[in-house]
Design brief:
The protein has about 280 residues and is mainly β. The protein has a single domain, classed as Beta Barrel (Porin). It is built from three helices and 15 strands. The strands form two sheets. The chain has a twelve-stranded antiparallel beta barrel. A two-stranded antiparallel ribbon has the order 4-5. Strand 7 and strand 8 form a beta hairpin.
Length: about 280
């Protein structure tokens, strides 16, 4: 199986899984470039909503059973303190330079900051955290239509901590994805581990992650759908563990161009209430 990522959204496991759904039909060796736009919103345990736009540019290379991708985002948001943490959109420990926000502190301090700063404009803008992704398909049984893929990612801390766009720390993670074709559907199960770097104001726990999904391919790979649930062990002591439910769609426009659309709902207090991502991939 050639496992080629279509776009790189906020959870790398979903990107890998959505891409592998149509890999039997669409995989092409060589280089590709990607562009996608993500919009997320939620209270993240704050008293007001935080709205975030991520524009991703990226490139990838596919050969045989492995693939490599790089994702470079530009961020615009109406308040600091939320960003990419361990591949998820979570509180990152810093709201602007006065740093009144402390995840280990009280909600009174959180409300003070949110009520005394403008939430109406996207005044926080800059380069986000660059991410590197790699996948390797190390087992495939054509008779049983079962395969195993090893995935890894590294988040390089290029986003500004002083603007509240990132933690300023390195994150990395690993996961294994099992895939099984059954009665015209494709089932997925994913188990992973994430090492999160701690900024000044937060002591993150390094979570285990589990994902379960089911997908369907239409018209020999021209269309595909994936419903995916992902949960983590607790990351911040005072708050519940993150949970996400996502729906992904791929459409092969032609032999070199693929359109992707992903919608997600956060099912816990510290995740985004909603997230939408759309993107294009060009095979070179």
């Amino acid at each position: 199986m050639k496992n080629k990522n279509k776009i790189l959204p906020f959870t790398f496991c979903l990107a890998v899984t959505l891409a592998s759904l149509t890999s039997k039909y669409n995989a092409q060796e060589g280089w590709s470039v990607t562009a996608s736009l993500q919009y997320s919103g939620g209270s993240y345990s704050y008293s007001n909503s935080n709205k975030i736009f991520y524009f991703y540019g990226g490139a990838g290379y596919q050969r045989n059973n492995w693939s490599f991708n790089i994702s470079v985002p530009v961020v615009a948001q109406n308040a600091g303190g939320v960003g990419q943490v361990g591949g998820m959109m979570l509180p990152n420990g810093n709201n602007d330079k006065d740093n009144r926000y402390n995840m280990m502190g009280s909600n009174e301090n959180n409300n003070y900051f949110m009520n005394n700063h403008s939430m109406s404009s996207f005044s926080h803008f800059g380069l986000g955290d660059i991410s590197l992704y790699c996948s390797y398909n190390f087992f495939e049984d054509n008779a049983s239509l079962f395969s195993l893929t090893l995935n890894s990612f590294v988040k390089i801390p290029t986003a500004s901590y002083s603007k509240g766009l990132g933690t300023g720390e390195l994150d990395f993670g690993f996961s294994t994805t099992a895939r099984k074709n059954l009665y015209g559907f494709i089932g997925f199960a994913d188990l992973g581990y994430i090492r999160i770097g701690d900024p000044v104001n937060i002591n993150y726990k390094n979570p285990l992650s589990i994902g379960i999904g089911i997908g369907k391919i239409f018209e020999e790979g021209n269309y595909s759908l994936l419903l995916y649930y992902q949960a983590y062990t607790k990351i911040i002591d005072s708050y519940p563990a993150p949970q996400l439910l996502s729906l992904g769609f791929n459409y092969k426009i032609n032999t070199v161009l693929t359109f992707s659309l992903i919608g997600a709902a956060g099912l816990s207090e510290v995740t985004s209430d909603f997230s939408f991502s759309s993107g294009l991939e060009w095979s070179l």
